[in-house]
Amino acid sequence: MGHVAFTSFLLGNGAMIETKSHDPPAPLALGSTNGHKPVVQLLIDAGADVEARDEHGLTPLMYAALNGHTKCVTLFLSQSGVDPNLTDTLGRTPLMNAAETGRDDIVEAVLAHKKT
């Protein structure tokens, strides 16, 4: 069973889409960290909070940017209400994270989004 099918199975059987604690991380943060765009899309469609923050102030967009997952970054940027200017507890934005890790494609995606 693939990630999407398994996630659908879990959601269909009452799995919580958000977590109260950060251990384990919220499903959307986990999908973003690992670059599973179809799972991320499924979770967004199911109502996951695209601006949810962990104990370090990181959002799913920040996780995707930190881990170099361009497809997830562009997916988040296409969502209403996603703010690419939010900062984590250290004052870093997704743009800063992408620049620090040498992800020019993500830097370009964030900058293009800011122009719209």
From TrEMBL:
It comes from the Eukaryota. SUPFAM superfamilies: Ankyrin repeat. ANK repeats lie at residues 23-55, 56-89. The keyword Membrane does not apply. InterPro entries: Ankyrin_rpt, Ankyrin_rpt-contain_sf. This is Ankyrin repeat-containing domain protein. The keyword Plastid does not apply. Keywords: ANK repeat, Repeat.
